[in-house]
Amino acid sequence: MTKACDNRFYHYAVLYLREEFAEKTKTLNDEEIKDLIDDGLRAAHANHFSTQADAMAFIDIDMRLENVLSGDAPPLWAQKILTDASLTNEQKLDRLRDAYCTFEWLEQTHDATK
User: Fold this and answer.
1) Residue 73 or residue 92, greater confidence
2) Please, what sign has the CA dihedral across residues 66, 25, 39, 47?
């Protein structure tokens, strides 16, 4: 990517994360958010997500999952999805989103029974 393209990606990524994850990003400055983006990009690239769209989708899911995908040791369930050679990147992202939705549903169901 060119420097201008990099700057544009970061600019829109920061805007998106500030809007989509307002609660999580409200105390972070732009440089701290860029650090989160860099962590997500490293993890996305390590898992063969090479397009900007795939990388941003990976970062979005990572943020929803409390940054477990970009952590030092992603959970085993995530590793199984990310290393499944029979899946396309789109299918991997879909499965990660499904996992997130399942966790959200379980959390809401658990909270509702208290």
Assistant:
1) 92
2) positive
